[in-house]
Known about the structure:
Elements: H1 2-6, E1 18-25, E2 28-35, E3 57-62, H2 66-83, E4 89-94, H3 102-110, H4 118-128, E5 132-135, H5 144-156
Parallel strand pairs: 3-4, 4-5
Antiparallel strand pairs: 1-2
Amino acid sequence: MCTSFLCSPSPPPQVFDNYAVTVMIGGEPYTLGLFDTAGQEDYDRLRPLSYPQTDVFLVCFSVVSPSSFENVREKWVPEISHHCPRTPFLLVGTQVDLRDDSNTLEKLAKNKQRALSCESGEKLARELKAVKYVECSALTQRGLKNVFDEAILAALEPPDNKPKKRCVLL
């Protein structure tokens, strides 16, 4: 997804872990440092080393992979919440171009599964207290710019998760 956003229309064949790009938001330039972390179990101990000073997380799942949707709740949000409890995150449904693909839907049906709806993503985002739910397709680039625009906005205006101070008058 990061490669597609930065190198549209087609990403280079190489695999990178981090990227930097300057984007304009409201007429102001912002330099984004993007880190695409490995999701494999082999990297579970190393991955959190890239988390400090993160301004916003993009927690992604494929709308045509129910197991990736479950991993959001079971693995990814607990992990980032443990290491960066005050850092906002967006929930991102990816591969929306496959939601209506007959071959993909057939494969899902054979396993008694179906593509995840936008409403399912929105509901999970509310339950997990994500800043927002957004969807995109890296292949068609549909919604891709919006994902990063929303991430920038979330980083610039993080939610106030600090406990409120109270003044007690006696």
